[in-house]
Amino acid sequence: MSTLRIDMTMSLDGYVAGPDQSLDDPLGKGGEALHEWMLATQSWRERHGQEGGEATVDDRYAAAWNENVGATIMGRNMFGPIRGSWQDDEWRGWWGEDPPYHTPVFVLTHHERAPLAMEGGTTFHFVTDGIESALAQAVAAADGKDVLIGGGASAAQQYLLSGLVDELTVHVVPVLLGRGERLFDHLDGGPVGLEPVELVASPAVAHFRYARAG
Amino acid sequence: MSTLRIDMTMSLDGYVAGPDQSLDDPLGKGGEALHEWMLATQSWRERHGQEGGEATVDDRYAAAWNENVGATIMGRNMFGPIRGSWQDDEWRGWWGEDPPYHTPVFVLTHHERAPLAMEGGTTFHFVTDGIESALAQAVAAADGKDVLIGGGASAAQQYLLSGLVDELTVHVVPVLLGRGERLFDHLDGGPVGLEPVELVASPAVAHFRYARAG
User: Fold this and answer.
1) Nearest 5°: phi and psi at B133?
2) Which residues of B touch A210 (CB under 8 A)?
3) Is B49 exposed, middle or buried (0-12, 13-18, 19+ CB in 10 A)?
4) Does B57 touch chain A (CB under 8 A)?
5) Best exposed site among A212, B72, B150, B199 by fewest CB in 10 Å?
6) Pairs across A and B, CB distance < 8 A
7) B204 → chain A, closest CA residue
8) Count of C-beta atoms within a 10 Å radius of residue B89
9) How far apart, in whole angstroms, are the C-alpha atoms of residue B120 and residue B103?
10) Mean pLDDT split into 10-residue runs, chain B, 214 residues
């Protein structure tokens, strides 16, 4: 039994990415401010071969982000800015040759493409037959470990609407982006069936964690 | 110089009131869950003649809500469910004969009505010539003390858009309302000019405080 998790950072005004995402602005305008809290943590710095950082409550959440993750699911915008069919296979993702996932990654798209193996254990699989198929494939690949929804907003919303999410963690930063992609949107009154299990904060970010109601 | 403050509680998914506000549901469906954190604080309980409650960080914020407030401004929905012209003067607000404001309260409305004096120092004044007029009247009445925007979402948005707000405090509770009145909406890319000055949390609520950028 894999646990299906969503773990995303949101501005206080509700955005998980800024507006006008592009090749130069993968997180949208101002979006990089969302993730500063994570870059300051000890576990992030260790993972990237840097010294320093503090072992705070933020560090616990930064470390938990990819702990025990066996497979990742993401929307197409999280893989790249290209729309429509894959014109060629040159685009290999935002993430460089060694993406931070180190697992199979299932990319939701309407356009078929052969799997793409990167360094460090990340292989991108392109799934064209919907979120339940992507989840089934991710669960099989995860082999008992967790399946993480890597974002973005639209992919998270589709899984929240499906009622299949076991755990939702939202890191709220005191940033006011003003525009962008809202996490809690297009949810038809949801999410439902999730109950709060933890709220803790540092001066930089408040962590809200929910679990599926028993 | 009065400080213009907004101080509101919001669900994690962005709502400061539930949907379908009515005589029976002044906070909208589910909206009462927003304010449970405040009812548990020592200062709220003392103010209402009850014993108990804990002197937590939440208590500090609950106490600060109406500290040094000399006048209050609110949107019409915060005064009552009546729309259009005042049919009669029977409606005296949601708040009972001794409203919790204990100051002059300026109600934004399109429809004139004579001032309404309640017990405990609250007098409702009905302002029909816009938010700047309401603010000028509130500042005069506050006599150097703070002016508090009491809500709701629309009134808060109008003042945030005006750039006149000196201090914004948002209490975020781990409630998912799904529908209702969003605080951060209709803001045309704003709010701008506010910088974060504090983020603290209890297990019940995270307090985000902003001040006008220097």
Assistant:
1) -65, -45
2) 174, 176
3) exposed
4) no
5) A212
6) 82
7) A199
8) 9
9) 8
10) 94 96 88 94 88 88 94 94 84 91 96 95 97 98 97 96 96 97 94 95 98 90
Length of chain B: 214
Q: How far is B29 from chain A (nearest CA, A)?
A: 12
Residues in chain A within 8 Å Cβ distance of B161: none
Tell me the nearest-neighbour CA distance from A100 into chain B, angstroms: 28
> Which among A65, A135, A58 is positioned nearest to A104, based on CA atoms?
A135
Sequence letter at residue A92:
R
Q: What single-letter DSSP state applies at residue B32?
A: G
**Helices and strands per DSSP (H, E), number in chain B:** 6, 11
pLDDT digits (tens, 9 = 90+) for B31-89: 999 999 999 999 889 888 888 887 899 999 999 998 999 999 999 999 988 888 888 78
CB spacing of B206 vs A206 below 8 angstroms: yes
d(CA B184, CA A21): 21
Which of A175, A203, A208 is nearest residue B174 as measured by Cβ atoms?
A208
CA B164 to chain centre: 16
Give the model's pLDDT for residue B48: 82
pLDDT at position B90 is 87
